[in-house]
Amino acid sequence: MLSKKSFDFKDRYALRLNVLEPYLFCKLAEAKKRSKKELIDLGAGDPDLFPPKKIIETIKKEALKPENHRHPVYEGIWELKEAIVEWFYQRFRVKLDPKKEVLVLAGSKEGLGLISWAILNRGEEALVPDPGYPIYRRSVLLCGGKPVFFPLLEKNDWLLDFEKIKIGPKTKLLFLNYPHNPTGAVLDSDFFEKIYSFAKKNQIIVCNDMAYSEITFDGYISPSFLQIKGAKNLCLEFYSFSKTYSMSGWRLGFVVGNRDLIDALFKVKVTSNSGVFHLIQKAGITALRLPKKEVEKIKEIYQKRRDILTDGLMRLGWKVKRPKGTIYLWAKIPNFSSKKRDSKKFCLNLLKKKGILTTPGAGFGENGEGWVRFSLTTKVENINRALKRMEKFDFQELN
């Protein structure tokens, strides 16, 4: 006869789960569901824009072909890999081998989440930016590695300070992300040269997250780390279709770079999934071959939103710099003098009292405390409504 005592499965969870804090964006989604006010969402980095028409037309056409509904090709269909090579050369003047130096991903997050499993042994270290996208530290922790955080500070324009980076005998990976989420910081080729020299000297693999490489403003054009001579020997670069083409729900991205690192990542990837649905890959080919003006239209919309939100926040007393990249604003909370410096509490109060969802800077690391990330993924009228709601409230009350 079975015992009536309930069985607690949590006692049998893998111990590695204990090192993971609740995922920031899951918590935001839960807070959004619980909100009782008419919500204005300035929290999620999820584009609200519709993908270009030609991409939708490709999906409709390819959906009628039976061969597109079978198991996907693990590494990505050849036609898409050729399109990636073509796009990469046109954009950066860097040549790639489609067979050995390109791997199609189910969104760049897949590759960033799996690369630590391919490179790190238990106890080995990865250099992780603080503030930075949470997936970097989470993936390192989950595979038994050790994240070693390096500070990105306002006084350095949120760029790396090499003197603050701790290198040890077990350091193997460096995560980069410019244009940077959440701060919107950008860098130039000269700074990439410095990073390459640093990585080469210390024999560190560079994982460069380029999710926002095509969403840039004010004449700034994002360079590729692979443009640096010799960088391909130690680098992987991750790209996403989500922001550039408003395809976030489609889950499509790719990684390029060192062939041995690509092969190592591939060995992990084929264990986790069977590849990307061929319809989505066919749409990716169309996206990469769109006229430049299609992407410019998307950038113009984000730039207009950026300017309206920046000007509005400045009028309200926020400290915010007009970013040259990404789909976010990084703003310092006015009169934020609390000893506890709890930006999570501030954002929760802003949601409860004003119905405005934002992302607390502390969710990106200790150096994000005191800051809030605003997303540009909503219409101008919603941005103006949010600014109006924030006109008459006491910041101290929200702290």
Separation of the first and last Cα atoms: 56 Å
Provide the β-strand percentage band.
5-15%
Ranges with pLDDT <50 over ≥5 residues? Answer: none
Q: What is the CATH domain class of the largest domain?
A: Alpha Beta
Sum up the overall morphology in one term: globular
Indicate the structural class: alpha/beta
Helical residues, percent:
25-40%
Count, helices? 12
CATH topology of the largest domain: Aspartate Aminotransferase, domain 2
Number of strands: 13
Characterization of the model:
The model has no long low-confidence stretch (mean pLDDT 91). The chain is globular, with a radius of gyration of 22 Å. The protein has 399 residues and is α/β, with parallel strands linked by helices. The chain folds into two domains: 18-50 and 293-393, Aspartate Aminotransferase, domain 1 (Alpha-Beta Complex); 53-291, Aspartate Aminotransferase, domain 2 (3-Layer(aba) Sandwich), CATH 3.40.640. Helix 3 packs parallel to helix 8 (278-288), helix 4 (108-119) crosses helix 7 and helix 9 runs parallel beside helix 11. It has helices at residues 24-34, 53-62, 78-92, 108-119, 135-142, 189-202, 259-272, 278-288, 292-315, 343-354, 380-389, 395-398; strands at residues 40-41, 102-105, 125-130, 146-151, 171-176, 205-209, 235-240, 253-257, 319-320, 328-332, 356-357, 359-360, 371-375. A seven-stranded mixed sheet has the order 2-8-7-6-5-3-4, with helices on both faces. The chain has twelve helices and 13 strands. Helix 5 links the parallel strand 3 (125-130) and strand 4. Helix content is 36%, strand content 14%.
